[in-house]
Structure formats: C-alpha cells, structure tokens
C-alpha cells in the first residue's frame, strides 16, 4: 500500500484548502483512515478519522466544525476539506491507512497559514 498526499499550500487565515491522499497497491486491505498533523516542535496529533464505509467520522476538538474528512473508495482517495484556517493549523499533514496488521503512512504535505 502506498499513500501520497497533495494539496498543501500557503494561505491566509480564514482561507480554505482541500488535501487529498491517493491510495495505491492493495487498497482492499485498508479499513479506517486518518489524517494526522505535525507542527514544528510538537508531537504528531490526530486530526480526523473515518471508517471504511465513510459513514463514521471523528474529529479533534480543535478542528470540529472547520474540517471535513471524506473518502471515495472507488477513486481510491481520502480527502480533508479545511475551512476557516487558522495560523495554529500550520503543520505537515499526513494520511494514514490501517489494515488488519499494519499502518501505512504518506510522506506528508505542508500547510502554512499566515495571519
């Protein structure tokens, strides 16, 4: 399984971005998927998660009401719509997919939010 993120950019506070994660390889083995982020000097934190069917989603309190996670299994893609971005959202964003016996990570995409 390979995961490749895209969509990161530099935006002003209040702006929006849509991150994508392209999934290839044994995609049928992937169940839940997640977006994490890691800011400089901070631990990697879970931003949002979604189940295999795309119906059950959960969010970190810091992004609730602003971010939306979704997936299109037919397109082999995971998404993160980010609205009303804040400077504290600045981080490298990583997608993660979990199978029965492994977690798979992408290399990340950078989001920079200026005030």
Oligomer: single chain
Number of strands: 11
Order of helices and strands: EEEEEEEEEEE
Biggest pleated-sheet summary: 7 strands, mixed
Ends distance:
37 Å
Query: DSSP strand (E) fraction?
Result: over 45%
Helix content: under 10%
How large, in whole angstroms, is the Cα Rg? 13 Å
Question: What class, by secondary structure content?
Answer: mainly beta
Please state the overall shape, judged from the principal axes of the Cα atoms. globular
**Segments where pLDDT lies below 50 for 5+ residues?**
none
- If helices are DSSP runs of H or I spanning 4 or more residues, what is the number of helices? 0
Mean pLDDT across residues: 97
Summarize the structure in short.
By secondary structure, the protein is mostly beta strands. The protein contains no helices and 11 strands.
Word description of this protein:
The chain is built from no helices and 11 strands. It has 115 residues and is an all-beta fold. The strands form 2 sheets. Strands 2, 4, 5, 6, 9, 10 and 11 form a 7-stranded mixed sheet that branches.
